[in-house]
């Protein structure tokens, strides 16, 4: 296939639209079902690069959930504990523990379920039946993977009344070393960001504490590869083989950190017994549960707990989750890893990260205030590596 016509571009008024190879060669993808759009393909190609690189670096299968050209999360195929299964809405999935790929997607989708609503999915390996069964019941725009088992393909083709977007990509495709795009009629050209992220990137530890366990180093790698395909500025929190909070596209570094930290805090809080024991009213759907949980954990919890509304949401009225209870729970969190796509210009980022349990940091370094940033990290007994590599993505 030399080109694929699109219904329109980013918006309905932007026509004509298509994808094609400038050199006239065949596209590296096959459309197995549906009709993906312009933004779908932007998500698909960025997401595929992320999971491909994540697998190459860690040796583990990987999955990501993308929305508007940034990942809501990315994860490798580690088994989920009972609490995390329930928090990710996959505790009823038969055979989950036997499919690392399904575990990876369950983690990626379950990290930030509000943002993952209507996601585009990328898988590093052949989509199997268990993974397809998870995807089948989620609101999703499409998927890209190098292959699909016959049963998985059958399941996925049944989504969205038969219109679910299913893309197969050539796993051996290597893009040209130089890439181009146009903005306002002007052509931009640059070398592709082929920099390989691996554990040697973490060798320059600049803090007094230099104890970086292998599993925490792996979490830093997950965060850095996730950042490589996240719209900048960006900060990523990671734990247990997955990105648990992504702060993307903010002009200020501290706002990236705050956003990522807030999402990471919510990921932790969703696994609290108070949330796991919520009894929803009959007929409340999966997307509605996400919204209810989000409000229950917010300072506006009365919107779902109030006298006039709680019966719409719950079979049994739950006790409020007080600000003090949440703070106490989060104060016990530690061992979280954090990556930043560019240096921290001020120590306020470190202070905010510390309140969300961050113990390990990877950032490029190079700020005129590096000494103050290191000093703040030392004050919290953190391990921080200067990677020397910026990871801007636009």
Task: Name some characteristics of this structure.
Cytidine Deaminase, domain 2; 394 residues; globular; 3 domains; 6-stranded mixed beta sheet; 5-stranded mixed beta sheet; alpha/beta; 36% helix
Largest beta-sheet characterization: 6 strands, mixed
The level 1 CATH classification of the largest domain is: Alpha Beta
Note the total helix count.
15
What would CATH call the homologous superfamily of the largest domain?
AICAR transformylase, duplication domain
Count of the separate structural domains? 3
Identify low-pLDDT runs: none
Quick check: average pLDDT? 96
Polypeptide structure, described:
The chain has 394 residues and is of the alpha/beta class. Helix content is 36%, strand content 21%. The protein has three domains: 14-178, Cytidine Deaminase, domain 2 (3-Layer(aba) Sandwich); 195-269 and 334-386, Cytidine Deaminase, domain 2; 277-320, no CATH class. 43% of the residues are buried. The longest helix has 21 residues, at 38-58. Strands 3-8-7-6-4-5 form a six-stranded mixed sheet. It starts with a strand and ends in an 8-residue tail after the last strand. The protein contains 15 helices and 15 strands.
